[in-house]
Amino acid sequence: MRKRSNLKLFAILVVCTFYIFGFSLVGVKAFQTLFKTNKFDIGTTLGVMDISDKSSGEVNTILNEAIQNWTKSTKIHLQYKEKKIDVDVNEFKFDAAQTMLNIKNGQSNRVTVTMDDRVVEKILYTLSPSMTKRDVDFDKFKEDLLQNAAMIKAENVYLNIDSYLLVSNKEETLSETRINFSSSNMPTNDRLTSLSVIKIEPESEFSLLRFLKENGMESASTESSSILATGLYQVISQSNFLILGRSISSRIPSYATLGFEARVDRENKMDFRFKNQNNQPFSIHLTWNNQSLEVRLKGQTLLNKYIVKAENEQHFLPKTIIQYSPLLNAGQVSIKKEGIQGSSIETFREVYNDQGELLSRELVSKDVYLPVHKIEVHSLIGTDESYVDNEIEAIPPTEQPPLSNEQINEAGTENNDVTKKDNYYDDLFESPNILK
Question: Which of 141, 139, 147 is nearest to 47 (CA)?
């Protein structure tokens, strides 16, 4: 009897338990059905929004507010090689009504949004007039464009078109140059001649002094380092690389062309620095011959064509400095130092698109090499007074260290019309140890 009583009591407890839990679940459904609350189940999401336990009216309001916020806050950035554009977010067409009809209870849902194929094709054309939908995985590109909008997630989106190309770009030689030098410029045992490849990482800055230090080539001579810097400068100037720092010598070296020299000197903290602003790597290949260096910039082809032009070349004749010596015979003149003419030049970089249209033109550098004055030593007796240039003081000249671009600019050499200003030319040579 006692066992039967226990079984009955256990059965009653089980029934009561199921009744309580069942009522809590079924009762909510019954209440929502009777009073038509139409709230979404736990675990229902729309994009990145949790719409659990919210009615259709509430979700509709939230959805429209989210669409407005997405349109105001979202930026979609596209890049193809070196060109970057932003997508007009107003081209995304949201359908809130269809979105509400498509919501499935207890599941993850996406917002209904579309974009016309013609708009997508126009985007590709804007990136490159020669690009069509046949050149890329069009459906994948469009899907990725709509992905963020369908999740209604307000953020910055970056898409690289290179990843959608059906045929990937192969590495090609983008620019090349040859630097000829004499044996006096390059020591035979210089470790720099063993360098064959320089890797340039995406979106990275490059310093030649730092590179030489990291590769155990700090002992490389100033001349050999400058020959390498000159070659690097000439090839990267024909790309969209940014020149961050460059210096030049006080006189143009025999291995360099006017407007295309770069000097590196560790002791004087003269470095050559540039930045690869592309999201793809490049490599610079070096071929050291007996008395020449061949430099090639290799990588995927760039969208635009870069042409460097040297213009406005000017030359400055040296003046004569007169010194006197009691050691010379009467009327005797000795040439202590021959004069060397100075020069200046401007280099410009022109950018053309793949249709041959000029996009921009920028000043890359303005190089100035000051003239070296001629020094004549005259005897104290029998000097022809009319021969002396009274504008120049007869004092010993001082050697000037190599000038960087910053020093040149500070000295006022940014004036383009040097030869047309007589007072500038006179001031420049007023005193051999004073640079005005």
Answer: 147
Beta bridge partners of 227: none
Domain count, the chain: 4
Q: Which of 78, 81, 86 is nearest to 278 (CA)?
A: 81
Closest CA to 303 of 163, 127, 160: 127
Supply the CATH number for residue 159's domain. 3.10.20
Three-state DSSP class for residue 111: coil
3-class secondary structure, 190: coil
Mean pLDDT of the region 378-386: 68
| 8 A C-beta contact, residue 230 and residue 319 | no
Token pair, residue 205, equals 């800055």
Range of the domain at 394: 311-436
Interhelix angle 138-150/117-127, nearest 10 degrees:
110
CA–CA separation, 180 vs 349, rounded Å? 24
Q: How far apart are CA 229 and CA 261, in angstroms?
A: 8
Spatial contact of 125 and 78, defined as CB atoms under 8 Å apart: no
> How far apart are alpha carbons 402 and 85 in whole angstroms?
42
Say what the pTM is: 0.71
Q: What is the pLDDT of residue 23?
A: 53
Query: Could you tell me which residues come within 8 angstroms of residue 168 by beta carbon, excluding any fewer than 6 positions away?
Result: 162
Segment 272-296, tens digit of pLDDT: 999 999 989 999 999 998 889 999 9
